[in-house]
Design goal:
alpha/beta; Glutaredoxin; five-stranded mixed β-sheet; 4 helices; 5 strands; globular; disordered N terminus; Thioredoxin; disulfide bond; protein-disulfide reductase activity; redox-active center; Thioredoxin-like_sf
Length: 119
């Protein structure tokens, strides 16, 4: 992929998860990328820790942009999206929320969920 002086790192998929800092930041990411998987997580959450390497792999392997939202640091953002437990995973496609799942999902299920919107 080539870049020019007008492109920015947020214009193209990233190979590692992006950490979201507030609602405006999440909205900017969602508006700039075709498919975004958002992981609402907490550092103290065991299933969240088990999901982390899966999301790292998906960030490197898929066309989706993977983002992470720390619910302890972003309580208002979590409330906005109705997050009641962690991990909660949201999928945005073309700027619209299209999926929401609570609990850790296996890698193959997450991959097929992403591919549903990237193909």
């Amino acid at each position: 992929m080539t870049t020019d002086a007008t492109s920015s790192p947020t214009d193209r998929p990233t190979n590692e998860p992006l950490y979201v800092d507030g609602e405006d930041h999440l909205e900017a990411i969602v508006s700039e990328h075709d498919v975004v998987l958002v992981d609402f997580y907490a550092d103290w959450c065991g299933p969240c820790q088990m999901l982390e390497p899966v999301l790292d792999g998906l960030a490197a392997e898929t066309a989706a942009t993977i983002t992470k939202v720390d619910v302890d640091s972003n309580q208002q953002l979590a409330a906005t999206y109705g997050v009641r437990g962690v991990p909660t995973l949201l999928v945005f496609a073309d700027g619209e929320q299209v999926e929401q799942h609570t609990g850790a999902l296996p890698a193959d299920r997450l991959r097929s969920l992403i591919e549903r919107y990237t193909e």
